[in-house]
Amino acid sequence: MDTLNNVLHGFSVAFQWDNLLWSMFGVFMGNVIGVLPGMGVLAAISVLLPLTYSMTPVAALMMLAGIYYGAQYGGGITCILLNLPGTPSHAVTCLDGNPLALRGKSGSALFMLVLASFIGASVGIIVMILFSPVLVEVAFKFGPAENFSMMMLGLVAGATLAKGSAIKGVAMMFLGLMIGVVGTDVNTGTIRYAFGILELSDGVQLVALAMGLFGLADFFANVNRIGKASTVGNTARMSVRPEPGDIKQSVLPIARGSAIGAVLGILPGTGATIASFMSYAVEKRVSKTPARFGHGAIEGIAGPEAANNSAAQTSFIPTMSLGIPGDSVMALMLGALLIHGIQPGPQIVSEHPDMFWGLIASFWIGNVLLVIMNLPLIGIWAKLLKVPYKYLFPSALFFVCVGVYSTENSLFDVGMVLVMGMVGYLLLKLRFSPAPLLLGFVLGPMVEENFRRALLLSRGQMGIFIDRPISAAFIYAIFALALWLVYSTVRNRRKVQAIAQARA
Fold first, then answer.
1. What is the reported pTM?
2. pLDDT, position 162
3. Any transmembrane segments, and where (predicted)?
4. Above 70 in pLDDT, residue 422?
5. Which residue from 452, 446, 454 is spatially nearest to 472, judged by alpha carbons?
6. Residue 181 three-state SS
C-alpha cells in the first residue's frame, strides 16, 4: 500500500505544470536527437545541462531523463529505414529492421518498434518500483570475476549474431576485440596500438564505428542508385498495422528482452547497448528457424528494442541508489544531482521522495507521450523511403558527419567514419556480418579490465572464476554454448553435404 501511495504522490509531483513541460521538452528533444543519425544523446545532455542550473532538481532530472529514453525510441527509426543506427544500442536492430523495410514492411516494423519500446520501458519502470532494493543487493554480488564471466558469455553468444558461418562470427568478434583495445590502457596509462596517431589515444569512437559499419557501408553498396528513385519506396506499404502473426511471434521475445534489459541495466558498465545485443543472441538461439534472422525476422526488432528500453529505465537504479553510473550518460545524470546538492545513495528515497517518485512517474508519462508522438508519425517516417536516393544519400551523410563531429568536436572521427564505412563495405562483399565486430568492440575492453582486476584481487589465482558461484555458473554456460556452436556448425555442414549429394 505504501508503494501505491508513493507512486500516486510521484504522479502528483510529475503533473505539476513546470515539471510536466520540462519533461515534454526533454522527451521531444530526445526523440528528435535519436532520429538524426549520429546525434548522440551524450552530446545533447552535455549541451542542455547548463539549463538545469536555474531549475528545480525534479524538473532538471525529468528533462534529462526524457532526453535519455526519448533517444531510445527515435534511434530505431533510422535503423529500420536507412540502416543508420541513431544510437549504438540500436545497431543490432539494423540486422532485421532494414531487411523488413526493403521488403516493403517498414510500417509494420516501425509499429513493432514503438510497441516493444513501450512495453520494455514499462517493465523497467515496474521493476524499479517493486524490486529496487533487491536489485541493488544483486548488483553488489557482482564483482570483477562475475562481470568477466558474464561478458565472456556475451562474447561467445555474439558469434550467433553472424548471418552465416559461426566461424566468421568468431573472426569478426576477435577483430572487434582488437579494435576495442586501441588507445590508453586504463591500468598502466600506456598507449596501445595507436601507431603514433595521437587522436587514437582515446580509442576508436563507438558512434563512428557503428555509423561506418552499418550506415555508410550500406550507402557505398547502393551508390550506383544515385540519380534513380528508391525502388524500395515505390513498393513500401504505408500501413502502420503489423502483419498477421507479428504480435503473436513477438510476445515472448518482448518478455525475454524486457527481463534481460531489466537485469543488465542495473549492472554498472553494461547498459542498453549490451542488453540489446544479448537479447538478439538469445532470440536467435531459442528460435526454431534461426535462418530467418538477418533477413527480416520481427523478433529481431521486438526483443532488442524491449531490452534496450528496459535497461534505459533500470540503469537509473545504481546511479541514484549507489552513486555508481553505468555509462557516460548516467555519469552526467549523477553530475546533475550533485550540482543541485543531492548526494546519491541508499537514503535518497527517504531524503528526497518528491524527486525520486516524481522522476519514476515521469518515466511513464514520458513513454506514453513518446507513443502518442510516434504512432501518428509512422506513415510519415515510412515515406522517407520515397525520397529519391540521390537526395537521401547526401542528406543522411551530412547528418552522420555533423553528428559524429559533435560527439568529440573532432574531424578525425569524421574521417574514421569514412574508413569504417569502406571496411564495412568490404565485409559486406565478403559476407561477414558486422554485428559480432561491434559487440566485441563494446565488450572487449570491459572483459580485459575485469579480468585483470579479478586476478589482482586473487593475487594471480585463476581459480577465482570457478570458486565464486555466480562466476562459475557463467563459465559452465560458456562451455555449454561453445559445444553447441561446434555441434551446430558440424550439423549444418553435414546437411549441406547431404543436399549436394542428393542433387548429384
1. 0.72
2. 57
3. 20-49, 61-84, 109-140, 152-183, 203-221, 322-343, 355-375, 469-487
4. yes
5. 454
6. coil
Nearest to 400 by CA among 223, 246, 214: 214
Q: Which grid coordinates are listed for 446?
A: 570491459
Question: Is there a contact between 279 and 306 (Cβ–Cβ < 8 Å)?
Answer: yes
What is the Cα 347 distance to its own chain's centre?
30
107 vs 235, more confident? 107
Query: Cβ distance 156 to 169 under 8 Å?
Result: no
User: What is the rounded average pLDDT for all residues in the chain?
Assistant: 77
Residues 282 and 256 sit within 8 Å (Cβ to Cβ): yes
Q: Which domain holds residue 496?
A: 470-503
pLDDT tens for 252-309 read 899 999 988 888 877 765 667 778 888 888 888 788 887 788 788 888 888 888 988 8
- Find cell 507521450 and name the residue: 369
In the numeric block, which cell numbers belong to residue 489? 556448425
DSSP state of 398: H
Cβ 352 vs Cβ 342: under 8 Å: yes
Which stretch, 47-61, 105-119, 202-216, 379-393, has highest mean pLDDT?
A: 105-119
Of residues 367 and 381, more confidence is placed in 367
Which one has a higher pLDDT value, 230 or 425? Answer: 425
Q: Is residue 322 part of a domain?
A: no
Closest CA to 369 of 357, 361, 381: 361
Contact between residue 3 and residue 129 where contact means Cβ atoms under 8 Å apart: yes
Q: How many domains does the chain have?
A: 1
Q: How far is CA 223 from the centre of its chain?
A: 28
Element (H, E) at 338: helix 328-339
Would 490 be classed as within a structural domain? yes
Examine residue 159 and state whether it is found in any structural domain, yes or no: no
Copy the grid coordinates of residue 58. Answer: 525534479
Decide: 190 and 60 in contact? Cβ < 8 Å: no
264, 275 Cβ separation under 8 angstroms: yes
Domain contains 489: yes
Of 398, 424, 401, the closest CA to residue 413 belongs to: 401
Helix, strand or coil, per DSSP, at residue 446: helix
Q: What are phi and psi of 184, to 5 degrees?
A: -85, 130
**Helix (H) or strand (E) segment spanning residue 183:** strand 183-184
CA pair distance 236, 88, nearest whole angstrom:
26
Confidence of residue 1 (pLDDT cuts 50, 70, 90): low
- The band of 37, judged by pLDDT with boundaries at 50, 70 and 90, is low
Pick the closest to residue 68 from 315, 396, 381, 414 (CA basis): 315
Please provide the distance, in angstroms rounded to a whole number, between the alpha carbons at the two ends of the chain.
72
Residues found in the chain: 504
